[in-house]
Amino acid sequence: MVKVTVSDKDPKASLVSLGTDWSNNDNTLPSPLVLSPRGQSSYFVPREGFKLSHLLANPMMLMMGFSVLMLFIMPKLMANMDPEAMQEMQEMQGSTPNFEMPDLAATLAKFSAGGASPAAGSAGAGKKRQ
């Protein structure tokens, strides 16, 4: 490695080997410093080409593929199910409670109008601000 020290008076170049201290200036090089390149630098990185495996490894494509696969397989699985198991499954689906989505507009209207839940209203009732 070559260490070049630039100062106001004159620049100095010294040869420093790996593992030695940078303050070692014993091996000075002649003033018109001529350096030759060791090799050609390549800054261009070629773009990767299209690969089908990269496309199929995409998580979105995996989810889509699973959904399409289930779309075709589930009806065939249901057709091969015995009648007793089919009836039991339909009863289980009928017995599950039907939850409705909360009305977002009504909830936001209550919130903006200052309407609070009874638990929150009773907690702050004892304290008054001035």
TrEMBL record:
Membrane protein topology class: Single-pass membrane protein
ER membrane protein complex subunit 7 beta-sandwich domain residues: 19-63
InterPro entries: Beta_sandwich_EMC7 (IPR019008), EMC7 (IPR039163)
Keyword Transmembrane helix set for record: yes
One Gene Ontology CC term in the entry: EMC complex
Protein name: ER membrane protein complex subunit 7 beta-sandwich domain-containing protein
PANTHER family linked: ER MEMBRANE PROTEIN COMPLEX SUBUNIT 7 (PTHR13605)
Keyword Transmembrane helix: yes
Transmembrane annotation, as ranges: 55-74
Keywords: Membrane, Signal, Transmembrane, Transmembrane helix
Principal location class: membrane
Cellular location(s): Membrane
